[in-house]
């Protein structure tokens, strides 16, 4: 059987995304991959949490991502960690890792800046299943596995929920996963997702989160941000 690799495609802000024939979806918004990631994940999730996060000496902010994908969210987060000198421990689970034939062609330097492509390759080439110090302020732990039978790491401060849509992967949007995730998160921890569907919002609320609908990036009317307001 011929393997159907994801296909590289340009988005409107000049950055690349991938289209997967397997699920019939893009990894990012075609209106702009980088601007989507900056708006939803490093913006609403990470920067939203940093506004209330008080760093203890020697303690890293613990971040969990559903879907490593192209590595764009991890890349942008690593750049913020370095710039702000905030230690971040970043765990990401991925069931369908990209082969070298794909990630070696990913490039974001024209949009993000010089040096970002080298950092992105280091993220992809780092070994699975162990903590890897990518930079002095960014430690990556990649998990090769299925979210539906995964035990979440504890004491999470930020969650990027970036799975394919509920239509493509309904099993990744079930309330039981949000319940488990809620239990794994610190008080005031923040989760953001591009998916603003009512069924997802209600599942997050039923799990205990305080959920708000916020304006999305270009091409997306609304996104969701959820906060664990009680310990």
Describe what is shown at a glance:
The protein is of the alpha/beta class and 231 residues long. The protein has helices spanning 33-50, 72-84, 100-103, 109-112, 116-125, 175-184, 198-207; strands spanning 7-10, 16-20, 25-26, 61-66, 88-94, 131-135, 138-144, 156-161, 185-193, 210-215, 222-227.
Provide an overview of this structure.
This protein has seven helices and eleven strands. The protein is of the alpha/beta class. It has a single domain, classed as Vaccinia Virus protein VP39 (Rossmann fold, 3-Layer(aba) Sandwich). The strands form two sheets. An eight-stranded mixed β-sheet has the order 6-7-5-4-8-9-11-10, sandwiched between helices. Strands 1-2-3 form a three-stranded antiparallel β-sheet, with no helix packed on it. Strand 4, helix 2 and strand 5 form a beta-alpha-beta unit. The radius of gyration is 16 Å and the shape is globular. The relative contact order is 0.16. The mean pLDDT is 95. One of its GO terms (molecular function) is tRNA (5-methylaminomethyl-2-thiouridylate)(34)-methyltransferase activity. This is S-adenosyl-L-methionine-dependent methyltransferase. Keywords: Methyltransferase, Transferase.
């Amino acid at each position: 059987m011929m393997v159907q690799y994801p296909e590289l495609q340009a988005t409107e802000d000049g950055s690349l995304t991938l289209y997967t024939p397997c699920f019939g979806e893009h990894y990012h918004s075609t209106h702009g991959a980088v601007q989507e990631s900056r708006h939803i994940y490093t913006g609403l999730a990470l920067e939203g949490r940093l506004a209330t996060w008080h760093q203890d000496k020697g303690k890293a902010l613990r971040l969990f991502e559903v879907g490593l994908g192209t590595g764009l969210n991890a890349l942008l987060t690593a750049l913020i960690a370095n710039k702000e000198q905030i230690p971040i421990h970043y765990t990401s689970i991925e069931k369908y890792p990209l082969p070298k034939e794909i990630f070696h062609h990913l490039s974001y330097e024209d949009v993000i800046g010089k040096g970002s492509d080298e950092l992105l390759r280091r993220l992809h080439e780092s070994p699975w299943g162990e903590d890897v110090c990518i930079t002095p302020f960014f430690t990556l732990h990649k998990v090769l596995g299925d979210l539906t039978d995964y035990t979440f790491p504890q004491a999470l401060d930020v969650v990027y929920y970036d799975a394919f849509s509920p239509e493509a992967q309904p099993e990744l949007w079930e309330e039981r996963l949000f319940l488990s995730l809620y239990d794994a998160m610190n008080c005031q921890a923040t989760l953001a997702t591009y998916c603003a569907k009512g069924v997802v919002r209600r599942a997050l609320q039923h799990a205990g989160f305080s959920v708000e609908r916020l304006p999305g990036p270009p091409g997306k009317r609304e996104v969701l941000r959820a906060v664990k307001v009680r310990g």
